[in-house]
Amino acid sequence: MLKPLLKPFVLALALMASMVSAQTIDLKSSHPVEYIVKEGDTLWDISQKFLEDAWLWPEIWQVNEQIDNPHLIFPGDVIGLVYVGNQTKVTVKKRTMDLGTIVLSPTTRISAIHSAIPSIPISAVSSFMKDSRIVKSEEMKSAPYVVAGDDQRILAGGGGKVYARGFKEEPGSSYGLYRKGQVFVDPDTGEVLGLEAREVGAASVSSWDGDVATLKLASTREEVIVGDRLLSTEDRVSVANFMPNSPKETIMGRMIAVLGGVTQIGQYHVVVINQGDRDGVAEGNVLAIYKTGKVIIDRVTRAKVKLPSERAGLMMLFRVFDKVSYGLILRAKRPMSVGDEVRNP
Hints:
Layout: H1 7-19, E1 34-36, H2 43-50, H3 57-60, E2 78-84, E3 87-94, H4 122-130, E4 132-135, H5 137-142, E5 145-149, E6 161-165, E7 174-185, E8 192-209, E9 212-220, E10 229-232, E11 252-258, E12 270-273, E13 286-291, E14 295-297, E15 304-306, E16 310-320, E17 325-332, E18 341-343
Antiparallel strand pairs: 1-2, 2-3, 4-8, 5-6, 6-9, 7-8, 7-10, 8-9, 11-12, 11-18, 12-17, 13-16, 13-18, 14-15, 16-17
């Protein structure tokens, strides 16, 4: 039986499929009739085996209600073509593994079974799913902060104790400890889009005295220092819970940063774009990347001329905030850089 908490997700997929516009779906000439899902596969990998345009996968996916959890795909599943009326669809034709029990976590809205294949490589995005978030500068500035470490030490590691103040009300039970990162600014309008808050640890409140709370450090990625800010934990959805799809709105944006300490952008690099929830993008959206055309001097007229932008790759969004989003580069035809354009695929 399908677990009750997963039903809304299945209904959402059905609704999405009913809303897409009718269009020709091109199967690859080399597509398999059947494919056995392997460990390490992603939904994007499988989509590309069957379709010329992998982001059209929701339009060809057929939920098989005769198997458990038909919206998720697992290693060992046999994926194959079926025919519904005059349409060709892809579905799970056979499930060979015992899925066990669905595990729900308080840190996610819907938690996929651990072994379900993700939409994109987990290893490429895991640190950006859990170690950073985008907030308003005012939110970070007004958040409670670490005022001292245990025994007045300035630094504290995992298992230690810190003191914090600046709470506007009695503190909650648990917090993430964050440090200020880079500020993202729209290159076209100059608007401040958000501040990167980089998580350095997690802590639980053990006591509260006056305006000072005592926190036990549950885990740390770096040493906690005076001035680190406390932000409430947030719900996050596993990347196994969304399918590659095209945005419903017309998107015209730019890559404004590349994360992870690299400069040239290539496959499996994580980038930030100046499009967010307010612009109509969502997790799972696939965007085409266009290398911004160079500006040259017309030797005949001596006028400046901007050459056309050329398509350079594809990305999928895996975290969407209000004004910016994180995306993973899935395909790179040529080197890309900050400032390149992103559009509907």
